[in-house]
Request: fold
Amino acid sequence: MPTGGHAPAAGGLAKAALKYVEQTGATAVQVYVSNPRGWALAAGDPKQDDAFLAGCAELGVAPYIHASLLVNLGSPTAATVERSVATLEHALRRGKIIGAAQGHATDIALLRSLRRNFPEVAPIKPPRKAASGPSPRGRSARRPRRGA
Reply:
């Protein structure tokens, strides 16, 4: 069973992630292919990608992609769902380039199918309506402040 963890990618996948593999003796490595806390989708550096792919093959290491931390396909906000789909598509494409996306074609087809076949659920759940005015029982919909 492959064993490893998240590897840094700052400075380039080959530079940072392969250094982690060599230092830890990992047999698997998981990397972000874009900013994990932002929506910007990094194009990657072809030289670093090629060196990472070759280095993983040489070391017998299985590379994996970690999706952005912002991905939320169940968001009530349509823009977040769209960005999430685009971010996952990007991660799968980049994963294929660096040798990590074994199910790439199927995964991209699934994401496109969701987008095409279920536009009405592009927020998957409707946003909650803010309570205003008296509740059905005649009490205010707002909760009293603590200590009041």
